[in-house]
Amino acid sequence: MSQPVASKARVIKVLNRIGARGILTEVRVQLVDQPRMQFMRTVKGPVRLGDIVDFEDTEMTWQSSSRSNSNFGDIC
């Protein structure tokens, strides 16, 4: 099993509230270590533009998300 990878990212855009009661916020983040890498994350709790979000992710999650994106066109 893969070990969790801790990363810090800066919130560059707050997109919208999601979830049954709107307790999650969808944001676009930019990695602090690699400024060219941007992606979307779901954050629980208050978040503002410019906040630093610390999250843990595994290599397995990255691989499964890239695999599902590549097969998106095959689903009908």
From TrEMBL:
The gene is LOC108043463. Belongs to the eukaryotic ribosomal protein eS28 family. One of its GO terms (molecular function) is structural constituent of ribosome. It comes from Drosophila rhopaloa (Fruit fly). Gene3D superfamilies: Nucleic acid-binding proteins. PANTHER family: 40S RIBOSOMAL PROTEIN S28 (PTHR10769), SMALL RIBOSOMAL SUBUNIT PROTEIN ES28 (PTHR10769:SF3). This is Small ribosomal subunit protein eS28. GO terms for cellular component: cytosolic small ribosomal subunit. Keywords: Ribonucleoprotein, Ribosomal protein. It comes from the Eukaryota. GO terms for biological process: maturation of SSU-rRNA; ribosomal small subunit assembly; translation. The lineage of its organism: Eukaryota, Metazoa, Ecdysozoa, Arthropoda, Hexapoda.
